[in-house]
Amino acid sequence: MEPLDSNAWVFDSLVGFLHGPVWNVPLQTFIEEKSLLFEPTDNGEVMDNPEYKRIHEEYRNLVIKKLK
């Protein structure tokens, strides 16, 4: 059995990918474009809005697409 340290490059590669532009740019762009809809009310609560589910589904699909 190999020592755990010999497989550390797999974790390092994954972390590098998740911090890189291929992953971050599309997700950050999506978040910036959609975030205004999620403005809290005066008391700090976020109202239940049917549009939230649609946007969440879009975000989820984007993440799944990036993972493939």
From TrEMBL:
Domain BART residue range list: 7-66
Q: Name one GO cellular component term.
A: ciliary base
- Origin: domain of life: Eukaryota
| Gene3D superfamilies in the record | ADP-ribosylation factor-like 2-binding protein, domain
Q: Which UniProt keywords apply?
A: Cell projection, Cilium, Coiled coil, Cytoplasm
- Tell me the compartments it is located in: Cell projection, Cilium; Cytoplasm
Q: Name one Pfam family in it.
A: ARL2_Bind_BART
Keyword Coiled coil included in the entry's annotation: yes
**PANTHER family linked to this entry:** CILIA- AND FLAGELLA-ASSOCIATED PROTEIN 36 (PTHR21532:SF0), PHOSPHODIESTERASE HL (PTHR21532)
Would you identify the family this protein belongs to, as annotated? Belongs to the CFAP36 family.
Task: Return the protein name.
Answer: Cilia- and flagella-associated protein 36
- The protein's organism comes out as Diatraea saccharalis (sugarcane borer)
